[in-house]
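Our preliminary data section would be incomplete without showing what the modeling component actually yields. Below, a chain of 243 amino acids is followed by its predicted structure, encoded as C-alpha coordinates that our downstream tools consume directly.
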Amino acid sequence: MRPRVILAVALLATAACDSAPDELLVSSAASLTDVFAELETGFEREHPGIDVVINLAGTPTLRRQILEGAPADVFASAGQADMDEVEASGLISGLPRVFASNRLQIAVRRGNPTEVEGLADLAESERLVGLCAETIPCGRLARMVLDAAGVNAAVDSEEPNVRALLSKIAGGDLDVGIVYETDVTAEPEVEGVDIPEGVNRVNQYLIAVLAGSSDQGTAQDFVAYVLSPAGQAIISDHGFASP
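Predicted structure:
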Protein backbone atom coordinates (compact mmCIF):
# COMPACT_ATOMS: atom_id res chain seq x y z
CA MET A 1 0.00 0.00 0.00
CA ARG A 2 2.75 2.43 0.94
CA PRO A 3 4.53 2.28 -2.45
CA ARG A 4 1.23 3.17 -4.14
CA VAL A 5 0.81 6.20 -1.87
CA ILE A 6 4.33 7.35 -2.61
CA LEU A 7 3.75 6.86 -6.32
CA ALA A 8 0.49 8.80 -6.18
CA VAL A 9 2.18 11.71 -4.41
CA ALA A 10 4.99 11.69 -6.94
CA LEU A 11 2.51 11.73 -9.82
CA LEU A 12 0.62 14.64 -8.28
CA ALA A 13 3.84 16.59 -7.84
CA THR A 14 4.80 15.91 -11.44
CA ALA A 15 1.39 17.00 -12.65
CA ALA A 16 1.65 20.22 -10.63
CA CYS A 17 5.03 20.98 -12.18
CA ASP A 18 3.73 20.22 -15.67
CA SER A 19 0.76 22.56 -15.21
CA ALA A 20 2.77 25.46 -13.81
CA PRO A 21 2.88 28.37 -16.27
CA ASP A 22 6.12 29.31 -18.00
CA GLU A 23 7.58 32.61 -16.82
CA LEU A 24 8.41 35.48 -19.15
CA LEU A 25 10.62 38.06 -17.43
CA VAL A 26 10.17 41.63 -18.68
CA SER A 27 12.59 44.30 -17.43
CA SER A 28 10.64 47.55 -17.67
CA ALA A 29 11.30 51.20 -16.87
CA ALA A 30 9.59 52.36 -13.67
CA SER A 31 7.58 55.00 -15.53
CA LEU A 32 5.78 52.15 -17.29
CA THR A 33 4.54 50.58 -14.03
CA ASP A 34 0.80 50.96 -14.52
CA VAL A 35 0.62 50.41 -18.26
CA PHE A 36 2.78 47.27 -18.14
CA ALA A 37 0.63 45.84 -15.35
CA GLU A 38 -2.32 46.03 -17.75
CA LEU A 39 -0.29 44.75 -20.70
CA GLU A 40 0.74 41.81 -18.51
CA THR A 41 -2.92 40.99 -17.79
CA GLY A 42 -3.92 41.27 -21.44
CA PHE A 43 -1.07 39.12 -22.70
CA GLU A 44 -1.67 36.43 -20.09
CA ARG A 45 -5.33 36.35 -21.06
CA GLU A 46 -4.34 35.56 -24.64
CA HIS A 47 -1.53 33.18 -23.56
CA PRO A 48 -2.88 31.25 -20.55
CA GLY A 49 0.25 29.11 -20.20
CA ILE A 50 2.49 32.14 -19.63
CA ASP A 51 3.16 34.04 -16.40
CA VAL A 52 4.59 37.49 -17.21
CA VAL A 53 6.84 38.78 -14.42
CA ILE A 54 7.64 42.50 -14.56
CA ASN A 55 10.98 43.69 -13.16
CA LEU A 56 10.62 47.45 -12.56
CA ALA A 57 13.49 49.87 -12.02
CA GLY A 58 15.12 52.95 -13.48
CA THR A 59 16.30 52.28 -17.02
CA PRO A 60 20.05 52.55 -16.20
CA THR A 61 19.59 50.01 -13.39
CA LEU A 62 17.89 47.61 -15.80
CA ARG A 63 20.61 48.16 -18.40
CA ARG A 64 23.29 47.42 -15.80
CA GLN A 65 21.48 44.26 -14.67
CA ILE A 66 21.28 43.00 -18.25
CA LEU A 67 24.92 43.79 -19.01
CA GLU A 68 25.93 41.94 -15.83
CA GLY A 69 24.06 38.82 -16.95
CA ALA A 70 20.82 39.02 -14.98
CA PRO A 71 18.11 36.86 -16.58
CA ALA A 72 15.51 38.67 -18.69
CA ASP A 73 13.52 37.96 -21.83
CA VAL A 74 12.38 41.46 -22.84
CA PHE A 75 13.78 44.94 -22.17
CA ALA A 76 11.50 48.01 -22.23
CA SER A 77 13.60 51.16 -22.00
CA ALA A 78 12.64 54.77 -21.24
CA GLY A 79 15.04 56.25 -23.75
CA GLN A 80 17.44 55.42 -26.56
CA ALA A 81 20.86 55.60 -24.90
CA ASP A 82 20.50 52.63 -22.54
CA MET A 83 18.93 50.47 -25.24
CA ASP A 84 21.79 51.40 -27.58
CA GLU A 85 24.34 50.25 -25.02
CA VAL A 86 22.64 46.88 -24.55
CA GLU A 87 22.37 46.47 -28.32
CA ALA A 88 26.04 47.41 -28.82
CA SER A 89 26.98 44.63 -26.39
CA GLY A 90 25.29 42.08 -28.65
CA LEU A 91 22.52 41.31 -26.16
CA ILE A 92 19.54 42.26 -28.34
CA SER A 93 17.78 39.82 -30.65
CA GLY A 94 16.49 41.67 -33.71
CA LEU A 95 15.88 45.41 -33.69
CA PRO A 96 14.51 47.52 -30.82
CA ARG A 97 11.12 49.08 -31.60
CA VAL A 98 9.70 52.39 -30.41
CA PHE A 99 6.29 51.67 -28.87
CA ALA A 100 5.30 54.86 -27.02
CA SER A 101 6.29 58.43 -26.23
CA ASN A 102 5.79 60.78 -23.30
CA ARG A 103 6.27 64.41 -22.31
CA LEU A 104 7.42 66.01 -19.09
CA GLN A 105 5.26 67.96 -16.67
CA ILE A 106 5.82 69.83 -13.42
CA ALA A 107 4.30 67.84 -10.54
CA VAL A 108 2.96 69.35 -7.30
CA ARG A 109 0.84 68.04 -4.47
CA ARG A 110 -2.92 68.08 -4.98
CA GLY A 111 -4.17 71.64 -4.50
CA ASN A 112 -0.73 73.11 -5.34
CA PRO A 113 -0.16 74.38 -1.77
CA THR A 114 3.09 76.19 -2.60
CA GLU A 115 1.50 77.88 -5.63
CA VAL A 116 3.91 76.71 -8.30
CA GLU A 117 3.11 78.44 -11.59
CA GLY A 118 5.98 77.40 -13.84
CA LEU A 119 9.58 76.32 -14.24
CA ALA A 120 10.99 79.54 -12.75
CA ASP A 121 9.52 78.57 -9.38
CA LEU A 122 11.92 75.61 -9.18
CA ALA A 123 14.77 78.10 -8.71
CA GLU A 124 13.29 79.44 -5.45
CA SER A 125 15.08 78.03 -2.43
CA GLU A 126 12.03 78.13 -0.12
CA ARG A 127 10.47 75.26 -2.06
CA LEU A 128 11.61 71.65 -1.70
CA VAL A 129 12.54 70.66 -5.26
CA GLY A 130 13.17 67.14 -6.55
CA LEU A 131 14.42 65.76 -9.84
CA CYS A 132 15.20 62.29 -11.07
CA ALA A 133 18.91 61.48 -11.00
CA GLU A 134 20.77 62.79 -14.03
CA THR A 135 21.74 59.24 -15.01
CA ILE A 136 18.16 58.25 -15.86
CA PRO A 137 16.07 59.53 -18.80
CA CYS A 138 13.62 61.54 -16.67
CA GLY A 139 16.49 63.34 -14.99
CA ARG A 140 18.41 64.02 -18.20
CA LEU A 141 15.34 65.38 -19.94
CA ALA A 142 14.32 67.52 -16.94
CA ARG A 143 17.72 69.20 -16.94
CA MET A 144 17.47 69.79 -20.69
CA VAL A 145 14.11 71.48 -20.12
CA LEU A 146 15.47 73.65 -17.31
CA ASP A 147 18.52 74.62 -19.37
CA ALA A 148 16.31 75.53 -22.33
CA ALA A 149 14.19 77.70 -20.05
CA GLY A 150 17.24 79.31 -18.44
CA VAL A 151 16.28 78.07 -14.97
CA ASN A 152 18.87 77.08 -12.37
CA ALA A 153 16.78 74.78 -10.17
CA ALA A 154 17.45 74.71 -6.42
CA VAL A 155 17.43 70.90 -6.22
CA ASP A 156 17.02 69.40 -2.74
CA SER A 157 16.66 65.74 -3.71
CA GLU A 158 17.65 63.46 -6.60
CA GLU A 159 15.65 60.25 -6.87
CA PRO A 160 16.63 56.89 -8.47
CA ASN A 161 13.49 56.67 -10.63
CA VAL A 162 10.43 58.67 -11.55
CA ARG A 163 8.07 56.72 -9.26
CA ALA A 164 10.28 57.43 -6.24
CA LEU A 165 10.19 61.14 -7.05
CA LEU A 166 6.42 61.10 -7.58
CA SER A 167 5.92 59.32 -4.25
CA LYS A 168 7.83 62.00 -2.36
CA ILE A 169 5.79 64.77 -3.99
CA ALA A 170 2.53 62.95 -3.25
CA GLY A 171 3.57 62.37 0.36
CA GLY A 172 4.59 65.97 0.99
CA ASP A 173 8.33 65.31 1.38
CA LEU A 174 8.89 67.50 -1.69
CA ASP A 175 6.91 70.49 -2.98
CA VAL A 176 7.63 70.19 -6.67
CA GLY A 177 9.45 68.10 -9.27
CA ILE A 178 9.51 67.22 -12.95
CA VAL A 179 8.09 63.85 -14.01
CA TYR A 180 6.26 62.45 -17.03
CA GLU A 181 2.71 63.54 -17.84
CA THR A 182 1.52 59.94 -17.46
CA ASP A 183 2.87 59.76 -13.90
CA VAL A 184 0.93 62.87 -12.89
CA THR A 185 -2.22 61.32 -14.38
CA ALA A 186 -1.66 58.06 -12.49
CA GLU A 187 -1.20 59.61 -9.02
CA PRO A 188 -4.39 61.03 -7.42
CA GLU A 189 -2.45 63.01 -4.78
CA VAL A 190 -0.53 64.96 -7.42
CA GLU A 191 -1.50 67.50 -10.08
CA GLY A 192 0.42 68.92 -13.00
CA VAL A 193 1.60 72.32 -14.17
CA ASP A 194 2.30 72.39 -17.88
CA ILE A 195 5.76 73.05 -19.32
CA PRO A 196 5.81 75.41 -22.32
CA GLU A 197 5.85 73.53 -25.62
CA GLY A 198 8.95 75.35 -26.82
CA VAL A 199 11.17 73.96 -24.04
CA ASN A 200 9.48 70.63 -23.27
CA ARG A 201 11.04 67.35 -24.36
CA VAL A 202 9.54 64.13 -25.75
CA ASN A 203 10.82 60.80 -24.45
CA GLN A 204 10.56 57.69 -26.60
CA TYR A 205 10.16 54.20 -25.17
CA LEU A 206 11.77 51.21 -26.90
CA ILE A 207 11.24 47.48 -26.50
CA ALA A 208 13.34 44.53 -27.61
CA VAL A 209 13.77 40.81 -27.14
CA LEU A 210 17.01 39.93 -25.38
CA ALA A 211 19.39 37.48 -27.03
CA GLY A 212 19.71 35.50 -23.79
CA SER A 213 15.99 34.76 -23.56
CA SER A 214 15.29 31.07 -23.07
CA ASP A 215 11.96 31.45 -24.90
CA GLN A 216 12.53 33.65 -27.93
CA GLY A 217 9.14 32.80 -29.41
CA THR A 218 7.12 33.93 -26.40
CA ALA A 219 9.30 37.00 -25.97
CA GLN A 220 8.64 37.94 -29.59
CA ASP A 221 4.92 37.36 -28.99
CA PHE A 222 4.99 39.78 -26.05
CA VAL A 223 6.72 42.49 -28.08
CA ALA A 224 4.21 41.93 -30.90
CA TYR A 225 1.35 42.30 -28.38
CA VAL A 226 2.75 45.62 -27.11
CA LEU A 227 2.93 46.87 -30.71
CA SER A 228 -0.48 45.46 -31.69
CA PRO A 229 -3.69 47.55 -31.82
CA ALA A 230 -4.79 45.99 -28.52
CA GLY A 231 -1.50 46.82 -26.83
CA GLN A 232 -1.38 50.31 -28.29
CA ALA A 233 -4.94 50.96 -27.06
CA ILE A 234 -3.83 50.11 -23.50
CA ILE A 235 -0.80 52.37 -23.87
CA SER A 236 -2.98 55.21 -25.14
CA ASP A 237 -5.48 54.74 -22.30
CA HIS A 238 -2.64 55.42 -19.85
CA GLY A 239 -1.84 58.73 -21.54
CA PHE A 240 1.17 57.74 -23.62
CA ALA A 241 1.37 59.01 -27.17
CA SER A 242 1.86 56.75 -30.18
CA PRO A 243 5.43 56.19 -31.42
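The longest strand covers residues 92-109. The domain at 103-202 is CATH 3.40.190.10 (D-Maltodextrin-Binding Protein; domain 2). Preliminary results of this kind motivate Aim 1 of the renewal.
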